[in-house]
Design brief:
transmembrane, about 100 residues, transmembrane helix, single chain, cell membrane
Length: about 100
Amino acid sequence: MKTFLLYVATAAAEIVGCYLPYLWLRESRSVWLLAPAALSLALFAWLLTLHPAAAGRVYAAYGGVYVSVALVWLWAVEGVRPTAWDWSGVALALAGMALIAFQPR
């Protein structure tokens, strides 16, 4: 569970770091959003270093969690309810993530 929560925190940091510039560019929000975006992306990079596995395996497994956190973000922040197809994709992505991250060593 600790590993999974670390992946979730990593995904949230990346999403925030990318969403804030999106708001600046697409929604004409303040350029000052770029400062917390940069900090969030730095946090994202640091969080990736806390995972105990090899970098390539971490990146591969992280992708599955990113997909699920992005859909929760879609719902919670953007107000768009994911479809059954979205949740099916999340289930497949998390199954792949689990195979990669939790394989016997």
